[in-house]
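ingest -> validate -> predict -> emit
validate: passed (alphabet ok, no gaps, 300 aa)
predict: started
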Amino acid sequence: SFPTRRSSDLVILKYLGTAGWEITDGSVVLLIDPYLSRINGPPPPGGGSGHSMAADTRRAYGWDDVVPPDVAAIDSHIQRADFVLVTHTHYDHVMDVPHIALKTHAAVIGTESTENVMRAYGVPEEQLITVRGGEDYQFGTFSLKVIPSIHSPLDHKRYFSSATAPSGMKAPLTLDQMHPEGGTLAYLIRIHGHQILAFGGMNYIEREIVGLQPDVALIGAGASRKEIYDYSGRLMRDLNFPAIVMPTHWDNFLAPYGASQQPALDALQVFVQEIVAASPKTRVIVPKYFEAIPLETVAK
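emit:
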């Protein structure tokens, strides 16, 4: 007979939209880039028509606007968090984190840029863990390897930012103030025998990921990945062909949750085909918003 596995050992993932995820084993809750407000805000450089919504009647926000988070949306889906991992300090990754951190008392792990945004909103220092990439930390039932990375090649490879959110800012911040990239990270989460590699965009530093062997990879699947040479093929080979790939950051984050994502889903099929061609034994799971994905039943 086999020993009964405790329910707390079952690792469950939920997709929050954009690059956002919840990962839990029942005893600890990790959030990655949780962004639920989904405002009608400025599109990414070179975002094109794929990010526009002709019928959107919501207020359109600009870079100089102070935008409150959608507290109702956040609170309806996030009741608890122990750690929040932020890959970079763009508003579609960091905007909701101060509210979540203050509400849940979660530790926020991110770059100095991210932590300065937290400080502006009064998140206590004891909740801030500043990283730059290269750290490998143990946290009780899970460990976390912080991996240096690079941002998606937006605007046909012309995107570049060395800006960092400065210290000493005071809330409320405009979208421009909370948007300096501040460097980009990826995270390898080891939890109950699983290794989950999470990217926050459509790019990576190859030498930093060679030799990693995640069984689950959360891979940026937006259109800008096409600007990267052999994006999916190199990833699959470098990661030793992970058992499961889940696309992330593929949806139109300027659209509210109730809007159709069919154009993004249609475009996503090309990414799925790329992964299957490069790694035929890999299972690609296209996540639905807030649907629980238990790893014990799929990581075989």
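The longest helix spans residues 262-278.
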